[in-house]
Amino acid sequence: NRIDFRLSRQRLIMKAEPAKDMHFVISEEALRTEVGSPEIMAEQFRYLVRTIDDASNVTIQVISSTVAHNPTPASGLTLLTFTEPLQPIASIPVSYGPSIYFEEPVDTLRFSRALDRLIGLARSPGASRKIIADLATRGAST
């Protein structure tokens, strides 16, 4: 049921009108961590490549696990921005327990700066697509 729910939610987000701009920065380490099987991973990489190619509102960048000055080296962040009058909302992932959300402008500004830093440190969208496409054909373990 969880998988069906997530796939349904994903379809709604991807087909929303007007299209929502989405920017993802994924660590190389996350891409190389095998989940499921090599076949499942290859299909996931092919899906990412199709998304990059087909969804002009989606940007995916890969950041090296060894890049210096990464503001989130062992974690991640989510920043949701909206049109006025809604304010941004930020969150950090947690393994156990309730998620932590930040709504105060001083906090969401910090998240915005961290995300800008990640985007600047990550590989370009074109270079990132190449990395993901190579993983789709060669596998995550290489």
Largest sheet: 3 strands, antiparallel
**Strand portion, in percent?**
15-25%
Count of individual beta strands: 5
Order of helices and strands: HEHHEEEEHH
Helix content: 40-55%
Number of helices: 5
- Rounded Rg: 16 Å
Separation, N- and C-terminal Cα atoms: 33 Å
Class derived from helix and strand content: alpha+beta
Mean pLDDT: 90
Shape: globular
**Unreliably modeled segments:** none
Main-sheet strand order equals 3-4-5
What does this structure look like?
There is one protein chain. The protein has helices at 2-14, 28-32, 38-54, 105-121, 125-138; strands at residues 22-27, 58-63, 78-80, 89-92, 100-102. The mean pLDDT is 90. Helix 3 packs antiparallel against helix 5 (125-138). The protein is of the alpha+beta class. The strands form two sheets. The protein has a three-stranded antiparallel beta sheet with strand order 3-4-5, covered by helices on one side. Strands 1-2 form a two-stranded parallel sheet. A hairpin with an 8-residue loop joins strand 3 and strand 4. The chain is built from five helices and five strands.
